[in-house]
């Protein structure tokens, strides 16, 4: 379906008010713009607390969002934010984490992983996996059920979530689900050529806020060497074996240069025997998640993700 006039205007306004492509992270720009206009307000959550995860590289800041700290242990989603591995933090995605916790009934741990270019690959992966294992090890203190853990991420965070799911498969903890929102699954192939296996990098490479040139810039900031793109921890679609990974929901967007690689990853999971559901948001674009109060496609994506978390680790699972 064509891009709606409302969404077209929204993207054009963001593009006009943003620095040159590649200068900042897509999600950070979207959320900063929304906060400036005071149009996106985070949901109330009963308990919000900043914590730190010890790691060999130093403490990793995390933030706990618990919707019912005085009740029975809930499931928990480890949330990894987008921003091209370069920008984004606990505050830029605070309202996203609040939305997930408030509407799913599960606790959320948002992870402030190290960013490039100061900390290049695989620093973000190491922090994301360390935080996930820490949540499982400290579940009782956090008021969460270690048998009901999931990883969730958008954009670069979606790629990190996919990698954490594979690392957890091999070394624990056991995960109930992975939810990947327009994830980065392949950092190879930049700059984009005509023979790319992902036509959306060309078809949607300009004019929809996130650009393929911007992705090339992000990859250059994140990877110490272009050859790192062949490592599954940078490009999970490059993993030799995807079998045994937790069930996946992969959300793609119609007008997103990353659309085809996200859907290719879901197909690869399914081919490996992993239960994988793919939903393409018609009329959607990269960065829409968390903007549901402004744009219907964003809300469609939010409702889909929340329902999946509710059904797998959230409020409705307590009775089961």
UniProtKB/TrEMBL annotation:
This is Alpha/beta hydrolase. SUPFAM superfamilies: alpha/beta-Hydrolases. It comes from the Bacteria. GO terms for molecular function: hydrolase activity. Keywords: Hydrolase. Pfam families: Abhydrolase_3. The lineage of its organism: Bacteria, Bacillati, Actinomycetota, Actinomycetes, Streptosporangiales. Transmembrane segments: none annotated. Residues 78-289 form the Alpha/beta hydrolase fold-3 domain.
